[in-house]
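About this split. The held-out portion is used to measure sequence recovery: a designer receives only the structure tokens and must propose an amino acid at every position. Recovery is the fraction of positions where the proposal matches the reference. Here is one held-out target exactly as it appears in the evaluation file.
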């Protein structure tokens, strides 16, 4: 699946990856994840995509974003947008699909292989477009959760599929979700997971009812 001579880009759909790892019962250790792929190929770029609630004094995802930014990842964010639906309920949107797709097409001429950490079926056409450019695309998600976190169309389109459940020992960290970054005494410096409430904003449909908040 991997060739040490390949130039590889890792694109992480942050919300989708978090939901996937949570469904499998382990946290992602992002330092180990990056180190793992650096051993397999030449990682040209690792990019993490997420939307942020900018009007909050404290957001539990910000320590993760800061850590990633200083430890080999490029961060792409945008503000969540709040609106009121027809029933008067407050909701927020934070879809990063366009940003990820545009970046993937721009970097395509510089890489041989793109690894997409997402199960979102909206990316099927992006994968097809990259393949038409002669690029190999691997999708990392899971079929072992209930329900599966990956779209069947996306899995079929990809050249390769990485089952994240089988890679927990390689770059996972077992245990309950943390509500703060882990200290250096607890691991090698990469942060823990964050409060579930932070990620309730990010559904696959990117709309969440906040009327109860």
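Reference sequence for scoring:
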């Amino acid at each position: 699946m991997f060739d040490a001579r390949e130039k590889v880009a890792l694109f992480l759909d942050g919300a989708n990856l978090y939901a996937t790892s949570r469904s499998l019962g382990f946290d992602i250790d992002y330092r180990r994840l990056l180190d793992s792929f650096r051993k397999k190929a030449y990682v040209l770029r690792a990019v993490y995509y997420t939307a942020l609630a900018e009007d909050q004094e404290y957001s539990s995802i910000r320590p993760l974003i800061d850590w990633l930014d200083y430890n080999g990842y490029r961060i792409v964010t945008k503000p969540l947008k709040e609106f009121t639906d027809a029933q008067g309920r407050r909701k927020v949107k934070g879809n990063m699909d366009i940003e990820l797709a545009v970046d993937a097409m721009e970097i395509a001429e510089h890489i041989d292989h793109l690894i997409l950490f997402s199960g979102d079926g909206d990316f099927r056409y992006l994968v097809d477009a990259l393949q038409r450019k002669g690029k190999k695309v691997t999708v990392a998600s899971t079929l072992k959760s209930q329900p599966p976190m990956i779209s069947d169309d996306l899995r079929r389109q990809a050249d390769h599929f990485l089952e994240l459940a089988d890679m927990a020992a390689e770059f996972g960290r077992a245990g309950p979700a943390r509500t703060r970054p882990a200290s250096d005494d607890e691991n090698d410096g990469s942060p823990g997971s964050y409060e579930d409430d932070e990620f309730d904003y990010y559904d696959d449909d990117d709309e969440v009812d906040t009327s109860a908040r």
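Annotator remark: DSSP finds eight helices and eleven strands in the chain.
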